[in-house]
Amino acid sequence: MISSTVGLLAGIVFVAMACCNVVLMFEAQRTQNVGMRNRFVSLHRVGGYAFIILFCLMASAMSERLVGEGLSNKLPTHIIIHVVLALSLAPILLLKVAIARRYKQAHFMLMPLGLAIFIMSAVLVLYAAALPVLGFLLTSFALVIVAARLMGLDGWWRPAALALGVTAASRLLFGTWLGVPLP
Fold this sequence. Notes:
mainly alpha
């Protein structure tokens, strides 16, 4: 089992790797030099597989931590949200690798998938890091605002209203009705 500090450091490395991979692909698309493009793509491929290995190691450590806390006990909502975010990243990673390696006709989807992986990784780590400091309500409120803006919801009052509704509904559902302890 890993400590919270080691987990946070691994999360920072995780997001940094995702960011580097996005930058490598932007540079590969920008350059006219075929040799440089091939080097960028190769570095991106190595970085991508290293990212997947780190994801698997972190998921394994997270699983051990969950088992250590006892799955039969009521898990706090923030842990459930963190697990759901992490598990939602796995199929996107698999889809990106499948398209890159096997389905060449769908290569146009690789850049949006890579950006989605980077954003989800950053959100996953930021949410986990901010939760102990800001608490469930404020962190979840900020998460919904950022997600709504990234998904194209215009203005600030609509994302804020959505965040208020989602946060209040989460508090009501988990905290009041289900009795799950919120941080």
